[in-house]
Each structure stands twice: as C-alpha cells, then as structure tokens.
Write a structure and sequence with these properties.
Length: 222
C-alpha cells in the first residue's frame, strides 16, 4: 500500500509528514514499512551516548528511557548527520506499556517506523526493533516488518519478573510466527528457556551487550 503525502501550503508540519513522504504502508493502521539491512550489528551504543561519541564502528540503538531520545522525534534533521557516521541504526524503542492507552501504543509504533523509514531514505542501514505490550499490540507491532529477515528486540528489564517474562515470551512467540525472522538481535539476556526453541528451528540469535554490562565489564578490568 502506498500513499502520496503532499505538503499543505501555509501549514506547519506538526506531525512530521516529511518523514513518510516516500513511505509505503502496511495494514489498516498504515504503519510505514522498513527496509531491513542485511548487516548484523557488531556492537551497539545508546542514542544518548552516540551523540557525543567518536567511536563510529557500532550501531545506534534506543534501549533507554523515552525521555533520552524523544529529541529525535522532535528534531530528527538535527541528528541525521550524527547517525550517518555510524554503521547503522536499530529503530527507536518507544515504550508500549500494557497500561498505556492503545492509541498511544499504536502512535509509538508509527513514530518508530516513520523515523526508520526516513533513515532508509537517507541511506542509513536500519534493523527494525519490535516492542510489544499485551496481546492487543501483538499484531500491529509486526506491521511494516520484512519477513524472513532480521529483527531486534530488547529483553533488558523484561524477563526478571515472572509476570513480565510471560508477556515477553508470549509476544515473542507471536512475532516469530508472524514475521519468521532468520536473525533476532537481542539487547539484553537471551536465556535458553526462552530462546533455545528458536535456535533449534534455525533462527540465529545475536546477543548485544547492554550498556549496563559493558560498564560492569570495564569496572572489572580496572
């Protein structure tokens, strides 16, 4: 599904239509599609640290509090030259809390995909991050994702509590069945009790060190 997003004379672009000027859409919600990079992240750096970093041999990710990267939605053009210096970007991880109104969850998925689609248009390799809440979000969080490709997910803070772990595992099952990824890049722990069945089915699991783990590794080297 495609759509023309024309500029309206005299109107301020308050919803950032320029991000999806050349986008294609998926589903009734018209979530922008993301072209997935064939490259695999070697290392990742949080967006809030990337804007000050000179180490560009890594991918930028957004597995941190939304307040730390809301600025990329508010002013994406400002950060484009910075992101272009890195090897690629894992699409923004806007929150999908289960007690968040559903329309806000849908909006956050849209925003993530709109930014990712725009980064595609600007020549930046992108891997789509998929985030879900409860079963209401399982389907629309998969919209706009290429099948039989690579996805990224964040497990950090999602599987420590048994109640959270159940929702994480259920959502991941749905995502895998829906988009059939060949590779899952995991920011956080990737315990066998959740991921072993995917490995047995031929899905490659790529572990991405969290900022927390990297900090502790460095402290141990001192």
């Amino acid at each position: 599904m495609s759509k023309v997003n024309g500029a309206r004379s005299g109107c301020k672009d308050v919803f950032h239509a320029f991000l999806v000027k050349n986008a294609e859409y998926d589903g009734e919600l018209e979530i922008p599609k993301i072209r997935t990079s064939c490259d695999i992240p070697n290392r990742v750096i949080l967006f809030s640290k990337a804007i000050r970093s000179k180490d560009y041999d890594q991918w930028v990710c957004f597995y941190e509090d939304d307040v730390s990267f809301e600025r990329i939605w508010n002013n994406p053009i400002r950060y484009l030259p910075i992101l272009k210096k890195f090897k690629g970007v894992i699409s923004p991880d806007f929150s999908l809390y289960r007690d968040m109104p559903l329309v806000m969850q849908q909006w956050n998925v849209y925003r993530s995909h709109a930014i990712a689609s725009w980064l595609n248009e600007n020549g930046i390799p992108v891997i789509p991050n998929i985030r879900w809440g409860d079963e209401r979000s399982f389907d629309f969080c998969c919209l706009g994702i290429e099948h039989n490709s690579t996805i990224a997910i964040g497990s950090h803070g999602c599987i420590k509590l048994l109640s959270e772990r159940e929702w994480f595992a259920r959502g991941l099952d749905y995502v895998v069945k829906k988009v059939r990824p060949k590779i899952i890049a995991v920011y956080g722990t990737d315990p066998d009790y959740i991921f072993d069945k995917y490995k047995r089915n031929g899905i490659r699991i790529v572990h991405l060190d969290t900022d927390y783990n990297i900090a502790h590794q460095k402290a141990g080297d001192v």
